[in-house]
């Protein structure tokens, strides 16, 4: 069995698989070690929104990073079809955010102003205008913010497509194998020890999502945030746009299905779905689209989001440990940011020049600048 690689990636979620794909395209020999199965955690639990505008309310390097990543998905969907023969179900129908009262309207108005000043389309619609686009929407609306450039994919198919494309470029995938120790000497990493063996590489990338904190220094700790979702199925397709109100989103999928999500419970890592969460999500779903009251519940599940204290992912080499990289902490935006994260980490590994704005913002450890959360993009 092959034991030596150019890079070892610990974690087989969408982030790890994206990085492996990008590195393998550049000719590197890569190993992915996954403690369970590829895409088994947050990557398969996610609804797949590409909310590069809908998720952000102020300028920051993360906002810019998200815009660049979203712009990659149209071509990426074609590329992964050609490389892996898999449809990631890319849909570019926009997102609608709902306001039901004056206070929520004020919030949407501020968001629209920010997006427009940043140069991105954002439209405040009346109830009548919104219902012309999506007739199934409730009439009990105050205002809708329409963000036409946002979209969605199938999180499951995206992760599988990255992994299959990486495999076809020579990446080795080891599932059901947990990394238990980093091999280090003289402040340099040279491999990992797992439950099944020892593997060697001069570069190790930890992309373990909400887990695997024991492989990194304490300042790279992840805050697990549990999210519960359910899948509804209706007799006909009720809407095409992703819909969003406080505490709930609706993401239409193929086959007249709708993902309804998601609760947010910090510090929890169990996969139980609570009746109160389901009840709350269904109530909000029906508030947005009354006809969903007639839909059937197909299934429900829970996933664990990987958050950080300042909601910025850790992307970069660990200070003081040559060859060790972190790529985790994407919180609600792992699917959205997966496209650019793969490219960005591959560039870092190759010691290519990256934007100083991103380098300073995403690196972890003592170099983290708390004041950088709102940074001029000029």
Offer a concise description of the structure.
With 378 residues, the protein is an alpha+beta fold. The chain contains ten helices and 20 strands.
Any overview of this molecule?
It is a single chain. 30% of the residues lie in helices and 26% in strands. With 378 residues, the protein is of the alpha+beta class. It folds into 2 domains: 7-84 and 155-222 and 311-373, 3-Layer(bba) Sandwich (FAD/NAD(P)-binding domain), CATH 3.50.50.60; 95-151 and 223-307, D-Amino Acid Oxidase, Chain A, domain 2. The strands form 4 sheets. Strands 4, 5, 6, 13, 14, 15, 16, 17 and 18 form a 9-stranded mixed β-sheet that branches. It has a 6-stranded mixed β-sheet with strand order 8-2-1-12-20-19, covered by helices on one side. The chain has a 3-stranded antiparallel β-sheet with strand order 9-10-11, with no helix packed on it. β19 (314-317) and β20 form a beta hairpin. The longest helix is centred in the first third of the chain and has 16 residues, at 102-117. The protein is globular, with a radius of gyration of 21 Å. The relative contact order is 0.19.
List keywords for this structure.
378 residues; FAD/NAD(P)-binding domain; nine-stranded mixed beta sheet; disordered C terminus; D-Amino Acid Oxidase, Chain A, domain 2; alpha+beta
